[in-house]
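Schema walkthrough. Field components (list of strings):
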Amino acid sequence: MLQCIFLLSDSGEVMLEKQLTGHRVDRSICAWFWEQSVSQPDSFKVLPVIASPTHYLFQIVREGITFLACTQVEMQPLMGIEFLCRVADVLSDYLGGLNEDVIKDNFVIVYELLDEMIDNGFPLTTEPNILRDMIAPPNIVSKMLSVVTGNTSNVSDTLPGATSSCVPWRTTQLKHANNDVYVNLVEELDAIINSDGVLVKCEIFGVVEVNSHLSGIPDLTLSFANPSILNDVQFHPCIRFRPWESEKVLSFVPPDGLFKLMSYRVKKLRNTPIYVKPQMSSESGTCRLSVMVGIRNDPGKAVDSLVVQFQLPHCVSSANLTANHGTVNILADKTCSWSIGRIPKDKAPQMSGTLVLEDGVEQLQVKPTFCVGFKIMGVALSGLKINKLDVKNLPTPAHKGFRAQTEAGQYEVRS
Amino acid sequence: MAPQAQSQRSPSPSQPSGKGEVSDLKMQLRQLAGSRAPGTDDSKRDLFKKVISYMTIGIDVSSVFSEMVMCSATSDIVLKKMCYLYVGNYAKYNPDLALLTINFLQRDCKDEDPMIRGLALRSLGSLRVPNLVEYLVGTLGAGLKDGNSYVRMVAAVGVLKLYHISASTCLDADFPALLKHLLLNDPDAQVVANCLSALQEIWGVEASSSEEAAREKEALISKPIIYYLLNRIKEFSEWAQCTVLELVSKYAPPDSNEIFDIMNLLEDRLQHANGAVVLATIKLFLQLTLSMTDVHQQVYERIKAPLLTLVSSGSPEQSYAVLSHLHLLVMRAPMLFASDYKHLYCQYNEPFYVKKLKLEMLTAVANESNTYEIVTELCEYAANVDIPIARESIRAVGKIALEQYDVNAIVDRLLQFLEMEKDYVTAETLVLVKDLLRKYPQWSHDCIAVIGNISSNNVQEPKAKAALIWMLGEYAQDMQDAPYALEGLIDDWEDETSPEVRLHLLTAVMKCFFRRPPETQKALGSALAAGLTDMHQDVHDRALFYYRLLQHNISVANSVVNPTKQAVSVFADTQSSEIKDRIFDEFNSLSVLYQKPCYMFTDKEHQGSFAFSEELGNLSIGVDDQRVEANDEDLLLSTRKEDSLPQQTQGALVSLDQNEPAAAHAQQTNSVIDDLFGLGLSSSPSSSPSPLLKLNAKAVLDPTTFQQKWRQLPVSTSQEGSISPQGVATMTTPQALVRHMQVHYIHCIASGGQAPNFKLFFFAQKTDEPSNFLVECIVNTSTSKAHIKIKADDESASQAFSALFQSALSKFGMA
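Field assembly_structure (string):
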């Protein structure tokens, strides 16, 4: 049972305070918390759940804003953390991003949202679709409307139908002029390549995103050509479990708008689409570095937005790196970033140069890890294929669209 | 460290005090209050926004309360919401003004828009002003019967709010029964969920005083209700599902068929997108199958995939919470996770706390088949930029080496670390090689060859230096220049800051001396000389000890310093298995994240409700048989009074007033008994503030009266006391403490609990009048702390009694 939620700005200022129960939580807890997090050299290192002398604190940080929740009783920790994550998601959804100004400008809406999301410490509704029905998000249209009509209320007058319907994620009376539904496979490739060039870990974490604008209460069935490759899946509450268990098809009544239908994991991929080969050799105080990048297994579509990043070791005093393609940037915190973009057809991109080590250091003992980022549109690297999507219970046929894309998640190459 | 209890209203210096602005606002609000002109709502809204924004940044705007209330007559819902928010925040401090708001809130509770009805009801409950509860009762009653589920949902939570403001009003209006009716019959799942949460809390608290409530609380986890909730599980929101699952985990199905039914029903919850639901389900599965070993294992297999997916899907904060749970399971059954070791590999940009958990798990899952790969992976981290992680991973390699029999390859790796020539790598490796040699002396040959090449000048960290010195001493005969290396170290004795290193140096030079006497003699001499003048007590004592030992008999000295050692087979684990089991019982709670069972970190006050009557019933009543013993003690007293040395303070060991009429009153006798052997360390009760308080040695109180009194009386004192380590050591059962307190005329009426947590109830009576003191004492032997709550008939004497109780407690175990 959460007792209080605070929103702190990136300078530790309390932007918002929402007391949830009769046990008032004093604001000074925030000062304590801030001291703790400032005293840590890296704010990233503060544990998500910490104990203050008086309360147990959950905290998550999103875009520089700290969401802090306090409790004094034992509770399920994930309930706390998960709820805060949900609050952050809903707020950024409502306000179109998260930052100090946007929260301060819209604090009334934030209060209203929190009021509906949690009462007396018990989380209530966190479905964005329902909240949207209760509290209209601030957007240009409503601003325009308010100027024109003089009615500035951003709270809808009626209760959302869903609060009383048996499909809690969907309002009952929805009407769209055009019925369309889009399914998007978004995959992230996590891989570790060790210093011997061996692929030690390679797996895909994927999400099926659906953007649905359908009237009435449609019933959708989505089937895959090869569901057996999925190792583990997580479903949106709207999915009926039985059909999945027996026939591996997803049968559901979708919420309106964009939502995550399911997420999945595919283990043990054998190959990565690209290779990144770093080579280093040190000799009497300098280190020659070269990194080669190229296509290993052609995914069939262009590999885009390719970036290779690494942290220069502390003992490097200066670096001189050039690339035959793309640009190399070395930032003040010794992060070196090589943006390649799209891999050219005619040559293999290569970055090379020398690192000058500090006085007294002969050899480079610390080996940097190269983090690789890329994006491939139009391909789901796991090989997952959508077979078909059936839409039932709809007066007019719907327009259906499918897309896929793969990004690098935690893709690291050790040297 | 502690947040000071500064007033919430005092703004920080960087913020404006806002005084002028607030009075400005007051003026403007007043002007608008009566106005009915069009556009008033808009200007009101701007003003309200300003008020709320001041409130948000911590400026006290309570002075505009009456103006806000006057402006609240509006049909605009946003204005209403802002007004509710404001009123809820300040009503508690302005109960008189809050009365003004009742009127419009009650009117809103009858509004035709269900949303406004709900909001008004919620705000009415949030006022939390005790003398306004009468207005709440009727409105809540209507709310619970409202046609709209939104209102009922708010009303259910409202009942709980009312209960916290005034429990008796809530019970008198018979709200719990209404809630129970709704719980079992309402078509809306959220209403059911809110009723459940409210009832759990109300009956949880009430159960301590009313048997009926205790029965109701039990009834919540009875089969019909559990099945009713489970059958509707999919209707509940994800958060309500967590609550229900938590409740179900308290239910013990009578036979295995039921267990399988429940698990089949809930299996799809493992696929839920909300991590909290998944974890609650996992807890339930683990609890259900605890007694069925083979099924329990299957559950582990089944929950593995969802857990690993949760780890990779969420934000770093979520993954950490899940990882902590995974960590717990991995530690319990490492072999089941042996094939998933790759999931535990650290990613470069994960936070330190995540990496550390992963390293520990990697260490645990290592077995014959995957050791090679895991160690290869760990060695990569050793070259990592992140120094703390590099250290941790070297330690992990060492731990794996200590676990495995095939250490050949690992030893090679460790020795390669030494060639990396980085201070911290060398330091960590040295410590590990030392431990390895203690377990596998057969590797000494390989290791020593490499260790011998390390110059002690390159090793700075005390632990590593101590390890190196230990090896120099232990393997002096194999290392060519051991005596000279030691000699060099002894020459720098003055500059050596760590006493640990100096202690090791003394021992090592002794060992070396017996193996290669001629070469070491000079070094030994100077080491002993330096040791004898050392400022550090331990170093000085050890030097003196060696010196005398050598004087006494050389061969005895040799057998003391160089006994034949057996290889260490298992190094002691830091956390006992009992504690691990306890943490497991508290799966899906904060305990797992802190890696401590809850009694080690939660404050008793907030641990939720404590079922008093129930516990009292289970506790052993230990009054009668101990009275006899008490008399025995009395006898003991009179005979041994002579040798007693009552003490006053720690420092003055023997200063005493023997003339004091020792047996005159209870405390005195205590000190006498406790100091029979002159061992007591804590202050004596002669410094007790109230020597006038005398306790009746033959006090009698029957358990029912005790219970009744306990319920009626307020807590007069609540504090922490400490128990001496000796006391803790004897306290395997509460009886030890019971007997001890008996001597002090403080009688035990009930006791219970298991190590390390005991709970005891004591009572005592004044000699001259029938005035009782009641004590609840919660002892935690792992922290040597006791939490004491005292209730007294005569409040004025409770301080004196508390001091007496504390002093008696502090001497527990001293005699």
